[in-house]
Amino acid sequence: MRCRSDQRPPKYFIPDSFYKGIYPSYAGGGGVVYSGQLARRLHHISKTVHLYPIDDVFVGMCMRRLNAHPVHHPAFLTFDFPSTEKEEPCTDHTVLLVHKRGPEQLLEMWAELNRTRTQCRDVPLRAPVTKKP
C-alpha cells in the first residue's frame, strides 16, 4: 500500500518491506477467550516470534507456530448486530461481546441489560450452527 506524501498512512499501514504474504488466521475484534494452557503456551512462544505492530495478527502468528487455530463463536460480534435484530428487546442478552462501541453506547447498553434482566433471563446466547452430516 502506498500513500501520497500529503496523506497520512492508514491506521494499519504495514510497509511491504516489513511483511510479505498472507496473514495467518487470527481472532480480530474486541475480545477472545483462551484456556489457561493456551495462554501459557502463547506467552512462551511469543518470545520467539518477531514482534508485529498489529496485536491480533501477532497473536495469530504465535498461534500458527503452536499449530493452534482460532474458532469463531457467534456470541462474539466483531462489528454489530444485524440491522433486523437491533430493536429486539433481548438482543443484548444473546452476546458475550460487541465491538466498536463508544463510552456513551456502552452505558446505554449496560442500562438496557439491567432494565431487561428479568424479561430476558431465559434468552440463550447465540450458539454455533452445527453442520449436519
TrEMBL record:
<protein>
    <recommendedName>
        <fullName>Hexosyltransferase</fullName>
        <ecNumber>2.4.1.-</ecNumber>
    </recommendedName>
</protein>
<dbReference type="GO" id="GO:0030311">
    <property type="term" value="P:poly-N-acetyllactosamine biosynthetic process"/>
</dbReference>
<dbReference type="GO" id="GO:0008194">
    <property type="term" value="F:UDP-glycosyltransferase activity"/>
</dbReference>
<keyword id="KW-0472">Membrane</keyword>
<keyword id="KW-0735">Signal-anchor</keyword>
<dbReference type="GO" id="GO:0016758">
    <property type="term" value="F:hexosyltransferase activity"/>
</dbReference>
<dbReference type="Pfam" id="PF01762">
    <property type="entry name" value="Galactosyl_T"/>
</dbReference>
<keyword id="KW-0808">Transferase</keyword>
<keyword id="KW-0328">Glycosyltransferase</keyword>
<keyword id="KW-0812">Transmembrane</keyword>
<dbReference type="GO" id="GO:0006493">
    <property type="term" value="P:protein O-linked glycosylation"/>
</dbReference>
<comment type="similarity">
    <text>Belongs to the glycosyltransferase 31 family.</text>
</comment>
<keyword id="KW-1133">Transmembrane helix</keyword>
<dbReference type="GO" id="GO:0000139">
    <property type="term" value="C:Golgi membrane"/>
</dbReference>
<keyword id="KW-0333">Golgi apparatus</keyword>
<dbReference type="InterPro" id="IPR002659">
    <property type="entry name" value="Glyco_trans_31"/>
</dbReference>
